C-alpha cells in the first residue's frame, strides 16, 4: 500500500513540475535573471530532495544507486529550468541539483521511513511550486 502511494507521489511531482515548466516557458521573456536564478535554485533543490527522500523510502537499502539517480535527476531539472533564462542560471541550477541530489538520500535515510517527514517535504514542495508560479506571474 505504501509503495503504491509513493509511486503516485512520483507521478504527481512529475506532472506538477511539468506544468510549472510549461507555464514558465510561456512567460520566460518577462522574468528577470535574478528571479530566473531563484527559480532554477528552488526547483532543482526541491525536486532533488523530494525525489531522494521518496526513492530512499521506496528502496531503503540501495543507497549508492538512489544517490546516483537523485543526483542525475537534480542536475537535469536544474539544467532544464536554468536553460529557460541564461547560461549562468543553467550553471547555478546544475550545481544546486548536484549538491541537493547528493544530500537528499542521506536526509531520507536519517528520517528512517517517517511518513510525517515525507508529508512535510511534500507540502514544502507543493508550496514552493505555487510560490514560484505566483512570483513569476507578478514580476
TrEMBL record:
Tell me which UniProt keywords the record has, alphabetically.
Answer: Membrane, Transmembrane, Transmembrane helix
User: What are the transmembrane regions?
Assistant: 6-25, 37-57, 63-84, 91-111, 117-136
Protein name per Swiss-Prot or TrEMBL? Uncharacterized protein
Q: Which organism is it from?
A: Metabacillus fastidiosus
- Phylogenetic placement of the source organism: Bacteria, Bacillati, Bacillota, Bacilli, Bacillales
Amino acid at each position: 500500500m505504501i509503495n503504491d502511494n509513493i509511486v503516485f507521489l512520483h507521478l504527481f511531482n512529475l506532472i506538477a513540475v511539468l506544468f510549472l515548466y510549461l507555464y514558465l516557458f510561456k512567460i520566460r521573456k518577462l522574468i528577470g535573471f535574478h528571479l530566473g536564478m531563484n527559480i532554477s535554485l528552488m526547483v532543482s533543490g526541491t525536486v532533488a530532495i523530494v525525489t531522494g527522500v521518496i526513492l530512499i523510502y521506496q528502496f531503503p537499502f540501495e543507497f549508492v544507486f538512489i544517490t546516483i539517480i537523485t543526483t542525475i535527476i537534480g542536475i537535469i531539472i536544474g539544467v532544464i529550468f536554468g536553460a529557460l533564462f541564461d547560461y549562468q542560471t543553467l550553471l547555478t541550477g546544475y550545481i544546486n541539483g548536484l549538491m541537493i541530489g547528493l544530500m537528499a538520500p542521506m536526509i531520507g535515510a536519517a528520517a528512517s521511513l517517517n511518513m510525517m517527514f515525507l508529508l512535510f517535504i511534500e507540502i514544502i514542495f507543493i508550496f514552493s511550486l505555487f510560490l514560484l508560479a505566483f512570483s513569476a506571474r507578478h514580476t
